[in-house]
Design brief:
2 copies of one chain form a homodimer. With about 425 residues, the first copy, chain A, is α/β, with parallel strands linked by helices. In chain A, β12, α15 and β13 form a beta-alpha-beta unit. In chain A, α3 runs antiparallel to α7 and α10 packs parallel to α11. Helix content of chain A is about 40%, strand content about 20%. Chain A has 2 domains: about 200 residues, Aldehyde Dehydrogenase, Chain A, domain 1, CATH 3.40.605.10; about 150 residues, Aldehyde Dehydrogenase, Chain A, domain 2, CATH 3.40.309. At the A-B interface, α1, β2, α10, α14 and α15 of A face α1, β2, α10, α14 and α15 of B. β13 of chain A pairs parallel with β16 of chain B, so a sheet runs across the interface.
């Protein structure tokens, strides 16, 4: 694969965006199917390239979790191919009419979804992320810049070549996908305000935070996942303990695992002793504030730093609070606006919690681990966003599109609607189907 | 009015956002009505404060157009009051259910709109913008920081005091509105990434561009409005000329006025002579490329800089192009992604133009001047955005809200949906009304 500089590639990608925006659904779906086929047909060479990466990673002593994510062979390749085929079955997110209004006779306004343009994804280790992101970008009509980690360079190069070629053969314009490889490329990317419309970083908290703080290009994602559970005074202890166990231990190293437990003073003496037993059975270390340690004097002390820490480990910090407002205040101060849950039997308390906690996902009597695009039934997950604009929480394909206003007239002039004896607007809602679309 | 530092005010505003998010519609509408009443009751003192601003502006020699926009007396005050009352009649943008899905029996997911949190508006001269923005923020449940120009300081101080007090009396929390006054405040504002969720700048292109380039806080707005009309070879000349005249001259100093005209080679000899007559009758200066000047040899020459210039004046640059692709290419290169129109009798040409021109508003046989929230029937206009995410084109109240996912369970655990013999999700769509909302 020839590799033009990222700046040059991005500029020519921008020029391709009109073509990508008007691709027929059948062409995009055909390309996705062709990409899946290319993965299967080249499974052997992909496994070999990946083996090279694994061997080189072994030499430099890559950490074990990264090694696991780096491996992309056999079933994982088949899984990636099936992921592309699942995208074929989803409806095209482009060209949907969001609103339709007659402004005046013969003057019709349609708000219609369209691609963002050029999206860039930065990820580490996992070569399957490259395949997934290429598929998501294609289905949504976007050109895509993919920046993988150097530890996966052999895998990524081959995969990018295969995706690009299969797409072009199926009718996509050349250059719809670009693989960026160097660290310098990341810096360049953050400056490409004229040609890149969205950056999706996946990686460590520090890395995502670095991206967010160093570009004016919109970023979709989340740095931290510091999630809370608040057990209200009216909670059912038999419901609370399994929810806490599931939220903490079902998969400990993920953004939607719980890190801090807040407990109403009235229920603390009843909840804490059985909770300790349940958590100790799963090797979870508890850290409590002074009031928690009145009931559990042998556990570690929780300090200010604990409230700010996403452990991603078998550790849970616990704080006793006096009321709902204190719980909400703590979460809005220390939380990461990702996912927070309340356990209570009182509906109005739950409603107030869900209304006032400023997080993307607010749950009542359910595990924080449900915050996920697959479990939500989104069909495909672009990422989980903790931003306050555009898309929030688990984001599906709709996060990769925006809309434009199309106005259909017959020579209409604004002058006729002002001055003396002006015409007036009808502003009549039209059906979303039919009409011009 | 006591004036805490902007940083302190913004932090305490953030703490108010849960309360603002759960305000009842009736409380917000009551506050809007009270604000309108306060304007009417204090019309005299407002006019006096505004007179002081006008006199001081006279002394320092403020430019005429700014003087006109600075004036806020009599009918303009009544107009602002009516604007607030119009907001009362609009539906509450908060608490709308966007999607509802059963994930499994007893486990229901609702995607519900909620306020952004804290929005900041920076404007110059026009005191009515302060009133309008305070109303928009309130209706959408946001706290608001307003930074006006120093030329309107007497008007702004009084208006901010009135809005704040009327709101608090009607049940809003103290500190829901903050007036920022100094230039230093603008710099501070751009750094308040933890407490400000959206910045809406209104002012000169340079000023808006400065804001966009110097903050990682999302910005809603547009710097330039460099709009185009493309007259296709299949255009009706009798439709084209009035559309061009209206787009250029109906109101010349606005973002949706046309600046550059692109003409298909085949129609240039028929369009240009009558166009010149129509434009000269309205004192519009034409600047053409070499091919245009073959037909109109006496007009000024258009140079590269013309394609990049938003004149906001009675000047129109003209370029002859060979085909639709050339027109689209020119617009996507030099345009500002605001509003661009095609004049043609050929529907498929129009559809391709509207699909491939990467602008917020794309029009067929209609004046570019229609790109406006009032004409679109949005009810209220927050601003016109040329961004590619969140909200694009004329933006109504929906640009000041986002959504959160509320999940209602009965003790549901993720562990039950994995491992051996996992439960499966039902992912059944629920009606948007009823259920938990």
């Amino acid at each position: 694969m020839s590799t033009p500089s990222l700046r040059v590639a991005a500029r020519s990608m921008k020029a391709l965006t009109p073509t990508l925006a008007s691709l027929k659904t059948s062409v995009k779906d055909g390309a996705l199917a062709a990409m899946a086929q290319a993965l299967r047909q080249n499974a052997q060479s992909i496994a070999e390239a990946n083996q090279k990466d694994l061997e080189e990673a072994e030499v430099v002593g890559l950490e074990k979790p990264l090694m696991i994510r780096l491996k992309f062979q056999g079933e994982k390749i088949e899984g990636a191919a099936q992921g592309l085929e699942a995208l074929v079955r989803l409806p095209d997110p482009v060209g949907r009419t969001l609103s339709a209004r007659e402004l005046d006779q013969g003057l019709e306004l349609y708000q219609v979804t369209c691609p963002l343009g050029v999206v860039a994804m930065i990820f580490e280790s996992r070569p399957d992320a490259l395949v997934q992101m290429a598929g998501l970008a294609l289905k949504s009509g976007n050109a895509v810049i993919l920046k993988g980690g150097s530890e996966a360079k052999h895998s990524n190069r081959l995969l990018a070549d295969l995706m690009l070629a299969a797409g072009v053969k199926a009718g996509l314009p050349k250059g719809w996908l670009h693989l960026a490889e160097t660290r310098e490329d990341v810096k360049t990317l953050l400056e490409l305000t004229d040609s890149v419309d969205l950056i999706i970083p996946r990686g460590s908290n520090e890395f995502v935070q670095y991206i967010m703080k160093n570009t004016t290009i919109p970023v979709l994602g989340h740095a931290d996942g510091l999630c809370h559970i608040y057990v209200d005074g009216n909670a059912d202890v038999d419901k609370a303990i399994p929810i806490i166990v599931d939220s903490k231990t079902q998969y400990v190293a993920v953004c939607n695992a719980v890190e801090t437990l807040l407990i109403h003073r009235d229920i603390a003496p009843f909840l804490l002793p059985p909770l300790r037993m349940a958590m100790e059975a799963r090797a979870v270390v508890l850290r409590g504030d002074a009031e928690t340690r009145k009931y559990l004097p042998t556990i570690e002390e929780a300090v200010e730093e604990d409230w700010e820490t996403e452990y991603l480990d078998l550790i849970l910090s616990i704080k006793v609070v006096g009321n709902l407002d204190e719980a909400i205040g703590h979460i809005n101060t220390y939380g990461s606006k990702h996912t927070d849950a309340i356990v209570t039997e009182n509906r109005s308390t739950a409603e107030r919690f869900m209304s006032e906690v400023d997080s993307a996902n607010v749950f009542w009597n359910a595990s924080t681990r449900f915050a996920d695009g697959f479990r939500y039934g989104l069909g495909a997950e672009v990422g989980v966003s903790t931003a306050k604009i555009h898309a929030r929480g688990p984001v599906g394909l709709e996060g990769l599109v925006i809309y434009k206003y199309k106005l259909y007239g017959k020579g209409h002039l604004v002058a006729h609607y002002s001055g003396s004896d002006p015409k007036s607007f009808t502003h009549r809602e039209l059906p979303l189907t039919g009409g011009h679309h």
